[in-house]
Description:
Radius of gyration of chain A: 20 Å
Structural class of chain A: alpha/beta
Helix content of chain A: 25-40%
Oligomer: homodimer
Amino acid sequence: MVKKKGILFLAGIGPGDHKTMTNHCVAVFRNCDVVVGYKRYVELAEPFIEKQQVISSGMTQEVERCNKAIQEAAKGKRVALISSGDSGVYGMAGLALEIVNKKKLWDRFAIEIIPGVPVIHAAAARLGAPLMNDYAVISLSDLLTPWEIIEKRLHHAAQSDMVICLYNPKSKKRTTHIKEAKSILLQYRKPDTPVGLARNVGRKGEAITLTTITMMLRYKIDMVTIIIIGNSATHVLNNRMITQRGYRF
Amino acid sequence: MVKKKGILFLAGIGPGDHKTMTNHCVAVFRNCDVVVGYKRYVELAEPFIEKQQVISSGMTQEVERCNKAIQEAAKGKRVALISSGDSGVYGMAGLALEIVNKKKLWDRFAIEIIPGVPVIHAAAARLGAPLMNDYAVISLSDLLTPWEIIEKRLHHAAQSDMVICLYNPKSKKRTTHIKEAKSILLQYRKPDTPVGLARNVGRKGEAITLTTITMMLRYKIDMVTIIIIGNSATHVLNNRMITQRGYRF
């Protein structure tokens, strides 16, 4: 008997609300045998999970989740390893591919990467249109990237007048990076530059705030907050944060 | 008689293939009266357009399209003004909001921004997982942004060791910017740094190429090509471009 070949879907579910999920991701949920993911993201996807086996685990268990998903795919199962937003943006896609390579499993099962709407773009849509021109995306978490590198990137991004999106701005243990980021930004940008804060985008407790670099730290900022810092062409019109792109009208 | 209030949807249809469209965008197509867009994008959305009125126009007619869409919404219609990818990334969202503001029409109709999968993320998924760590997104088109600013951003992005995504790398008239970009990149990055080229992602004629900074100009590059330039942690495994994020496994 020839063993059925498995498939590993590396799928981004979007920010969390079901309407921002792609048709492809919905189809993957309908057609897979196993769903593997961080337990909060599995909860977000629950309405789509019927008879599928679910393997979920806690934060920072990324390697373990990849290993589980790969194990199931190697058995011939159809496995969805899910990330919130896009699987390729601070998600599981890269790590899963690295592990498949290390274990020399490229030929054992198929792999398909299903792009999703990254959380920053759902955040941007709620705020207005802050990403209309060039932008940089930087995570303030130093769990996997040394702070000196993050700091250097903040300097360059701020100097270059690109709009800046910050992921993972502040955790319970890591509370000072966002303050350092603010002081770097103030070296190059006006204090009243518009800043958008988007917490829990597309999820329960969604909160959208328009503020400025000076005032931003007065609001609640945590790991489920996306911060978008405007550039010199960003302004606020009727409570919408908009970066002008130079059209004449 | 109270006039029915219109609504303007600023919707991103994703790269072009229907499976990468969000559920929300599909619902908008089903529930609107008028679809306004660049004719190629309207063609991509055609399977979703039934009885809706279609208003399409050519490239660089962005202001005209916004005006038409706003006019229809002001009449009380349900209007979808579409962009490819995400409406908030080099799309129509910002311009539409600016025009609504200038015409003082904020109270005349509702506005809803529907995020879509930006083309770079569909491109990244096809290439592997190149955007796993911090990245910069830069358009090489100087139609709306002076070249000196773009050049400065390229220098900063290249120095900061962020992955770099280039939109609009080369048009028929604008053929030298990509050469200048390449020489800026070579000032800071190794010549054999992996580069991914993704042409017509999700559309007819899709072509995915893995190359290097040195070799990238030997391939076809045009306005429907997305270029992703790796950083010092990007490598190629089994024809997949992957940026390592520092996990231990």
